[in-house]
């Protein structure tokens, strides 16, 4: 007995193969796009404090380097240098968050929300926006070092010897 009616035809096989090949190509393309977005979201960002004494570098995973200019201790006080470090780290956090948001926005825009799929369900996007921590406030502007603390000479020994840091 011949079951020709249940056997797939060559044309049907070719059509299924073409459909699977198309799906695999789409998957490879989307995977490549996702890897590109991930690479962009994790790019290294470097920022300087306004006074140019501190550079902070990092990405969304965290801070990778804090660089303090060699003459920072001559040009600044410990308090204002601390504010410069805080300023640079805050700006680094803002810029890395912005970079991540820009890199991942195509995915966020394309993904359906739970409320889109299930009528009456809460919006996951709104919930995530509520749970996201607010951006850190911008620090107060760094005040210039008082004139008496700026040492124009290159003699660091004299600079540190003439100040009592243990008070």
UniProtKB/TrEMBL annotation:
<dbReference type="InterPro" id="IPR036894">
    <property type="entry name" value="YbaB-like_sf"/>
</dbReference>
<feature type="region of interest" description="Disordered">
    <location>
        <begin position="131"/>
        <end position="167"/>
    </location>
</feature>
<protein>
    <recommendedName>
        <fullName>YbaB/EbfC DNA-binding family protein</fullName>
    </recommendedName>
</protein>
């Amino acid at each position: 007995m011949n079951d020709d009616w249940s056997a797939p035809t060559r044309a049907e096989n070719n059509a299924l193969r073409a459909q699977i090949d198309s799906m695999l190509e789409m998957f490879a393309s989307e995977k490549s796009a996702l890897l590109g977005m991930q690479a962009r979201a994790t790019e290294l960002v470097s920022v300087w404090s306004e006074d140019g004494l501190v550079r902070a570098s990092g990405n969304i995973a965290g801070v990778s380097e804090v660089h303090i200019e060699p003459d920072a201790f001559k040009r600044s006080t410990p308090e204002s240098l601390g504010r410069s470090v805080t300023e640079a780290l805050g700006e680094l956090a803002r810029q890395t968050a912005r970079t991540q948001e820009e890199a991942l926005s195509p995915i966020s825009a394309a993904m359906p929300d739970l409320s889109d799929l299930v009528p009456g369900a809460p919006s996951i996007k709104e919930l995530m926006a509520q749970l996201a921590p607010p951006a850190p406030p911008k620090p107060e502007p760094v005040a210039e070092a008082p004139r008496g603390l700026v040492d124009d000479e290159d003699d660091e020994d004299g600079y540190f010897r003439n100040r009592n840091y243990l008070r």
